[in-house]
């Protein structure tokens, strides 16, 4: 793995929302922790010390304190499973919800694909969608926030 591939891997991990990942190959091992914004590259055969690489900061760490206050009253719709997040039922169909759409409790807001099964995710609360937190086609983890909903 060359440096360009490694940087691409780090960017992918930081965008995916995963907090930690380790990749081990024949000649090296990479551990990436997005919560701390660090990546450690260890050369397996004769590494005297690990080399730290600057990794992009986690998306949550980029939010300014003022932005956090702006959404403090909002409630997150969270992923009930690990899988791939999709905003539409199929590529030729419309998006389930956009920012500004009003949803009722039980309305389908997205699909999460897990093991070739497409699971409709329903809103647990009624309100207005104020923010989409995950990019279409991105991997998501259990209990990861997907949308912010303003219940007022």
Description:
It is a single chain. The chain has 152 residues and is mainly beta. The protein folds into two domains: 3-62, no CATH class; 65-150, Beta Barrel (OB fold (Dihydrolipoamide Acetyltransferase, E2P)). It is 13% helix and 38% strand. It has two helices and twelve strands; from the N terminus they run H-E-E-E-E-H-E-E-E-E-E-E-E-E. The protein has a four-stranded antiparallel β-sheet with strand order 1-2-3-4, with no helix packed on it. Strands 5-12-10-7 form a four-stranded antiparallel β-sheet, with no helix packed on it. It has a four-stranded antiparallel β-sheet with strand order 9-8-6-11, with no helix packed on it. Strand 2 (28-33) and strand 3 form a beta hairpin. The longest helix is centred in the N-terminal third of the chain and has 14 residues, at 3-16. It is elongated. Residues 36-44 and 46-64 have low confidence and may be disordered.
Rounded to an integer in angstroms, the radius of gyration calculated over CA atoms is 18 Å
State the major sheet. 4 strands, antiparallel
Helix content: 10-25%
Mean of all residue-level pLDDT scores: 77
β-strand percent reads 35-45%
Counted beta strands: 12
What order do the strands of the largest sheet run in, or round the barrel if closed? Answer: 1-2-3-4
Number of helices: 2
Quote the distance from N terminus to C terminus: 50 Å
Q: Briefly note the structural class of the backbone.
A: mainly beta
Which superfamily, in CATH terms, is the homologous superfamily of the largest domain?
A: RNA polymerase II/Efflux pump adaptor protein, barrel-sandwich hybrid domain
At the fold tier of CATH, the topology name of the largest domain is OB fold (Dihydrolipoamide Acetyltransferase, E2P)
How many domains comprise the coordinates?
Answer: 2
Question: What overall form do the CA principal axes indicate?
Answer: elongated
Order of helices and strands: HEEEEHEEEEEEEE
Can you name the CATH architecture of the largest domain?
Beta Barrel
Residue windows where pLDDT falls under 50 for at least 5 positions: 36-44, 46-64
Q: Indicate the CATH class of the largest domain.
A: Mainly Beta
